[in-house]
Design brief:
- There is one protein chain.
- The chain is an alpha/beta fold.
- It has one domain: TIM Barrel (Alpha-Beta Barrel).
- The chain has 13 helices and 10 strands.
- An 8-stranded parallel beta sheet has the order 3-4-5-6-7-8-9-10. A two-stranded antiparallel ribbon has the order 1-2.
- The chain is globular, with a radius of gyration of 18 Å.
Length: about 325
């Protein structure tokens, strides 16, 4: 039976239920700490927990916490929130993007990976296979030396570019996939470089139906979306309610264009709620309840106006598709 891996163990994918496929619960990214960017520090577990409670109260079952090692994971704090609220959390091994790698390695991580000063130094000085071994260990043994194992592996690239070190992490994650069969998630900065990432993954022999590409709503190019979808990959529209990037109607139009083209089984929806100002209980933002309370009713209405069954699509985006995407593959 297909299974997904949560912080507290493996579960049948039909137990995931209503799932947010890309969020951040508690994280303190070193890059932003060193620059005093407080809005990007989700450093109050009690406030984060209140938002998770909102999600659970509204029927949410699972959150994929996409916080990789270079984005200031707080593994024990997130596990505590999962334990107290009953939410299932899927943790993330791997890497984010090179933009963040000037940050100093945490003392705890130095104890796991060696005596490097920064993330960039660690990635540059390590071989692809050494980085892959680190990722494999986080899936099979635990995140940063804890007992909580990752349920997906991640890589990322910058805006309109892939640096040599970013390519190195893509190849490391690809090799970790072959060992673990864990689902793969790709960070695309502003929705760019997915096709170039796909070329590297193909070179490494990774089946694209095991990969989800994030931030697709940062680049509302329906031709581009369809080219990605044609590979069998999942597309994550994870910027819901971020009006500074695009109006919600444009996001919905792009989603429905994929549905109309027959790719409704490859769409994921989430909020990537990674700022204090996005959280309800930090700074009165929309919070983790927004999608359940506000976005879904609006989407159903707009989908039905366009001739689609909105409720069927919502089930696919939040229940059926995550159950397929986050399954470990044979």
């Amino acid at each position: 039976m297909a299974f997904a891996r949560t912080l507290f163990g493996d579960v049948s994918v039909d137990k995931l239920g209503f799932t947010y496929s890309h969020e951040h619960i508690v994280c303190v990214p070193g890059h932003w700490v060193e620059r005093g960017e407080c809005d990007l520090l989700l450093d109050d577990p009690a406030k984060s927990e209140l938002d998770v409670e909102d999600f659970v109260r509204l029927g949410g079952k699972t959150i994929v916490d996409a916080t990789a090692v270079d984005y200031g994971r707080c593994v024990e704090e997130v596990a505590g929130i999962a334990r107290r609220t009953g939410v299932q959390v899927i943790g993330t091994a791997g890497f984010n993007k090179g933009f963040l790698w000037d940050a100093r390695l945490t003392r705890r991580l130095r104890g796991v990976v060696g005596n490097f000063d920064t993330y960039g130094e660690w990635i540059e000085e390590s071989s692809i296979d050494q980085l892959a071994a680190f990722v494999i260990g986080e899936v099979e043994e635990g995140l940063e030396g804890t007992s909580y194992r990752a349920g997906q592996i991640k890589f990322g690239t910058g805006y309109n570019s892939i640096s040599p070190l970013e390519e190195k992490t893509i190849r490391a994650v690809a090799r970790a996939f072959h060992e673990t069969k864990a689902p793969v998630h790709a960070h695309t900065e502003a929705g760019t470089m997915a096709l170039e990432q796909i070329a590297i993954l193909r070179d490494e022999g990774v089946p694209l139906e095991c990969v989800s590409f994030g931030h697709m709503d940062r680049n509302l190019d329906t031709y581009y979306h369809k080219k990605i979808a044609e590979t069998g990959a999942f597309l994550s529209f994870d910027g819901i309610n971020k009006i500074k990037y695009a109006p919600e109607c444009a996001r919905t139009k792009a989603i429905l264009a994929l549905v109309d083209a027959g790719f409704e089984d490859q769409i994921l929806i989430s909020g990537d709620t990674a700022r204090r100002s996005y959280y309800r209980h930090y700074d009165n933002g929309p919070g983790l309840r927004f999608i359940k309370e506000s976005w879904i009713p609006r989407f159903i209405e707009e989908a039905e106006d366009a001739g689609f069954d909105g409720e069927v699509l919502v089930r696919k985006f939040f229940i059926d598709n995550p159950a397929c995407c986050f399954a470990f593959k044979e």
